[in-house]
User: What shape does this take?
Amino acid sequence: MYEGVVQNLIDELGRLPGVGPKSAQRIAFHLLAADPADVERLTKALREVKDKVRFCRTCGNVAEEDECRICRDPRRDPAVICVVEESKDVVAIEKTREFRGRYHVLGGAISPIEGVGPEDLRIRELMQRLADGTVTELILATDPNLEGEATATYLARLVKPMHLKVTRLASGLPVGGDLEYADEVTLGRAFEGRRLLDV
Amino acid sequence: MHVAHLSLQDFRSYATAEIALAPGVTVFVGPNGQGKTNLVEAIGYVAAHASHRVATDAPLIRQGAPRAIVRAGVVREDRRALIELEINPGKSNRARLNRSPVPRPREILGMLRTVLFAPEDLALVKGDPGERRRFLDELLTARAPRFAGVRADYDRVLKQRNALLKSAAAHRRAPGPEVLATLDVWDSHLARTGAELLAARLGLVADLGPLVAKAYSALAPSSGAASLGYRSSLGERLPAGPERAGRDELAPLMEEALREARKQELERGVSLVGPHRDELVLQLGEMPARGYASHGESWSFALALRLAAFELLRADGDDPVLILDDVFAELDTGRRRRLAELVAPAEQVLITAAVPEDVPAELSGASFTVEDGEVKRER
Assistant: This one.
């Protein structure tokens, strides 16, 4: 244990995801030794993120204004919505530069064990967006685990009466990998999701 | 296949142990509580990634040690492989194959296959249905390691679904449309993975039945005929010739059964339909073995189940390693001799016994004494 304030800092840092007690101690001593201006910049960034960042009122993504950058962008196709669990999934998909539609961030996945039901996710907001008929395709990009699959199935059933095109991201083999290294579940999924080779 | 070498580090009572083994019969002799069973338990762990004695891994670690390491040199069709498992209680285990790390320990399941007979096997006949379900599921996994994943998925779906039912039951009012719609989703996932497990179990029971009957009549020739049945929570819905039904045929039937049971499930807050409620029925003549079989008959039935498992795995390819942990002491002379005759042809048989007289003469081979955590070769 260290003197009061130093230990406080270590404790606080230790609460961050992915930071164990050893790393927390390392970061704390790095900050102690760092230039005051550097620490000032960090505290400012931390304060600003809490003061300024809000959640987009349309899609639920992190935003600095009422609406996020993507929802404000008129070049993005309003007819296609990609549903993801977290804002960080938006970033992941944006990096591909493949998707030109808009997003909807649910804020998690259905998991009764953790007490998360559909009413705790931004599903009502999604239904409002679908109500006016602009959207023609819904891409379900929740995580490929049990909870993500359950959430995707739930949504697919919910929007079925609306006659949208509903798609689920493919799961299967990693690009550039070797077939022999794939585990049986992935390989099995890839078999189920195989597609016609059009030549 | 056979185990050519076993090396332990901080496993149970052993700080370290190095034992060279050979094909054929090997007997470990020593008074109780000296560490014989720990040796074969370690080999069983390498094969099944679980102990036959305890449900959690913590007791496997020597007191005061952070982790245990088990290494087994396995020879299979003249090819040698070194399997290494690091057992970390409370965390996931780490596995290495021929000194290279394996991303998931599950991937080396099936590298070593064992069939283990132990005094605990009596629970297969006399114990809860859960014991018999586990017997089937472990055998499924030994035949096709993929089922480790199916079982894990099913358990997870079941947990989620039970959590939902429990919270709905706790509210004591009619569940809202959102709860019901979520339940529909879990139903379809439960039916999908449940049907896969059910289809595999039905096929397994059909394969196993004749082998159990044969093994039982060899062990206890004067007793009635042994047979297997499978009682599914789908009941009458199971199609005729259920062992030929596939997942896609069974899943809609399971969904139907779930719909019918829903009211009851919501009242009680537990899942009432699915392979977790099923029962492997052991029959002796016209009677169920559980509750009707004598102690001797129960033992014969338990041994017959293991012997049938051995025959089945053997028919798939390589001979599994047979392990008889303290089994002979439980049997009368006639059963001892007949069991010895049945297991003698296996490529490798590992036996533990408190006194050498317990082991029938048919099973002679290498012998080790185990005393005070020391393993010494006698002959």
